[in-house]
Design brief:
The complex is a heterodimer of chains A (123) and B (139). By secondary structure, chain A is of the alpha+beta class. Chain A has four helices and four strands, in the order αααββαββ. In chain A, helix 1 packs across helix 2. The longest helix of chain A has 30 residues. Chain B is an alpha+beta fold and 139 residues long. Helix content of chain B is 15%, strand content 47%. In chain B, strands 2, 3, 4, 5, 6, 7 and 8 form a seven-stranded mixed sheet that branches. In chain B, a hairpin with a 4-residue loop joins strand 5 and strand 6. Chain B starts with a strand and ends with a helix. Classes of the chains: A alpha+beta (123), B alpha+beta (139). Chains A and B meet through helix 2, helix 4, strand 3 and strand 4 of A and strand 5, strand 6 and strand 7 of B.
Chain lengths: 123, 139
């Protein structure tokens, strides 16, 4: 357990929001921080993916196929089976954001969706 | 395990299954959710809120593309999916910030034996005994 001192203006706002949500301040702050850390992991994965895409041709020539695990720009593990690789990476790195990606001729994995109703927002 | 087709939000009615999502072995499961059976989808797609609430760790960014070539980015995760008594682990699921629908794609559907009883508007996951009987009859 770590105690964090909040600035009075922030503490007041957090207390007010916790009351509105009928949550404790502790639960609300922990929830917000967890979400922030989750989004930070997303950001790191995107940065790792950009590095992967920049070196995609070299990695394809070196490894050929299968799945790569990349951490801080370095290939840290490979496997032909995604689930096995994922298990090893989670055992070793916990919740650290390690890019686990298939190595194909395309630098980014594409999922096709042929369902007629679904519409995708363009970004 | 059977689920009635969704006859209110889709026309013609669409087959759905009731599913739960989990991540790893230490977090609670989320659901049940109604999920559309879509053999035209490569992968299973969920609203981003599900991996967010599970605090799932991402695998890699992916691109979702429709048959008209429209596309946008999402993020893939490895999750566990529970459908009735069937528990599937190691399912790649794309978390999509732009949808509220859950799509069960072929990466998951290809691990199930399904009966789409469209005239009765009912989708069923076949259990082992019935499936064995049907397979024997085919031979």
């Amino acid at each position: 357990m770590t105690t964090v001192l909040l600035a009075p203006t922030i503490a007041d706002q957090v207390a007010s929001e916790a009351k509105r949500r009928e949550q404790s301040v502790d639960a609300l702050v922990n929830d917000w921080l967890e979400e922030h850390l989750w989004r930070e992991r997303q950001h790191k994965i995107h940065l790792e993916a950009e590095r992967f895409q920049a070196h995609h041709a070299d990695l394809l020539a070196q490894y050929g196929s299968g799945y790569l695990a990349i951490y801080n720009g370095q290939v840290v593990d490979t496997d032909q089976e995604l689930e096995l690789l994922h298990q090893r990476i989670r055992m070793t790195y916990g919740d650290e954001p390690v890019l686990i990606t298939p190595l194909t001729i395309e630098p980014i994995q594409t999922f096709r969706i042929l369902g007629a109703r679904r519409t995708l927002a363009t970004t | 395990m059977s689920t009635a087709y969704n006859t209110t939000d889709y026309y013609p009615p669409i087959p759905i299954l009731s599913v739960l999502f989990g991540y790893g072995d230490r977090r609670p499961w989320l659901g049940p959710y109604d999920a559309v059976i879509d053999t035209g989808a490569d992968a299973t797609i969920v609203p981003e809120e599900i991996p967010l609430r599970l605090r799932a760790v991402p695998l890699n960014p992916v691109n979702l593309v429709t048959q008209w070539g429209e596309g946008h980015p999402a993020v893939a995760y490895m999750m566990n999916v529970s459908i009735g008594d069937i528990h599937l682990s190691g399912i790649v699921v794309a978390g999509d910030p732009a949808t509220q629908e859950i799509i069960l794609g072929r990466n998951l559907l290809n691990r199930l034996a399904l009966l789409l009883d469209a005239p009765q508007f009912e989708a069923s996951v076949l259990d082992g005994a019935l499936l064995q009987r049907l397979r024997r009859r085919r031979r």
